[in-house]
Amino acid sequence: MRITMLGTGTSQGIPMIGCPCEVCQSSDPRDKRLRPAIHIEVAGLSLVVDIGPDFRQQMLRANITDIDAILVTHEHNDHIAGLDDVRPYNFLRNKNMPVYGLNRVGEALKQRFPYIFQVTNKYPGAPCVDFHAINEHTPFTIKNTIIQPIAVMHGKLPILGFRINDFAYLTDVHHIEAGEFSKLQNLDTLILSALHHRPHHSHMTLEEALATIDVIRPKTTYLMHMSHLMGLHAEISQMLPENVFFGYDGLVIDSR
Ligand SMILES: [Zn+2]
Ligand SMILES: [Zn+2]
Ligand SMILES: [Zn+2]
Q1: Quick one: fold of 2-16+31-254?
Q2: Cα(4) to centroid(ligand 2), Å
Q3: What is the pLDDT of residue 69?
């Protein structure tokens, strides 16, 4: 399977509008981070996880011309705001876009995008989405690929991560309840969020992320969802232990 990191920044992206800091002003392309999303290609399946405000730009940049389904980790704006831009896929495939997420996330999408889910007198050309409610207990299948949802805590908000084969994607993690670690054994590749260096009510610091990696022990880990306070990619990368890397937008990862 092949994973492309489409966005590795936190909710405001990097650069942050108007910020004069050295990270936001950096000319290193690895310091330019769109809002969080990944693309997964596995067994003929094309999946995108999260559909934030940069979705359109991400699809164009990575030239993703076909998507079988979108998985949503949670309902924060940096993970759903781009839902309107599924329209080209509706038109190209002449079918609704399947979107998978917690029931609570489906309700939030209906509130935030009422015109998408309107049943009568729907505006012609509005996005067409089929929402599928999933939960952390039950693996689900898309075209023969089994997807295992993983419950993670985003502060007080329970959200989902996903495991496919020996790859797992956990974003917006503050902590993981003990019972969920059994789903994270023998990972080849882990993508994990780490915000910056100061404690935060809903995100792990770099230090907390590294401690979590020590428990999970994946073969390789890529960090993402970082803010400009994390520091320059080129400098901060030097501090990481073996087999742990900072992700960056456009990075392509082959996994088992
Ligand atoms: Zn900045
Ligand atoms: Zn969030
Ligand atoms: Zn987020």
Answers
A1: Metallo-beta-lactamase; Chain A (3.60.15)
A2: 20
A3: 98
